[in-house]
Amino acid sequence: MMKTKRSILIVDDSPLIIERLSELLKELDHIDIIVNAGNYEDAIEMLTTKNIDTVLLDIHLPGKNGIALLKYIKAIYPDIKVIMLSNQATGFYRSICKNAGASYFIDKSKEFESIPTIISSLDQRF
Questions:
Q1: Structural domain boundaries of the chain?
Q2: What CATH number belongs to 6-122?
Q3: Which has the least CB within 10 A, 1, 19, 34, 56?
Q4: How far is CA 21 from the centre of its chain?
Q5: Predicted confidence (pLDDT) per residue in 13-47, tens digit
């Protein structure tokens, strides 16, 4: 079975995190495009203008936070897979994100390197 090419949006206000994620994802052969946004408004524009199917989303963004964006994405684009990223990986945030429709919740400080495996596993699901 051929894997689907994924279009990924990285939403994080840290250029370093965006760079690290982009480097990790470029290693995967089933990634079609990688775009990024540094805040809620830019992310909405990318979702509107690009054919995104996967979002890597930081909880803490300038202006409206990532949880508000997660809720927007799941309301408007329910088929988009959202992987939440945070340095504050408490049960509180995990629970809120899961209940709002996140596919995964990643602790940036401990689980960052697992992101390519998680992205690949999205293609295994039916």
A1: 6-122
A2: 3.40.50.2300
A3: 1
A4: 10
A5: 999 999 999 999 988 888 889 999 999 999 999 99
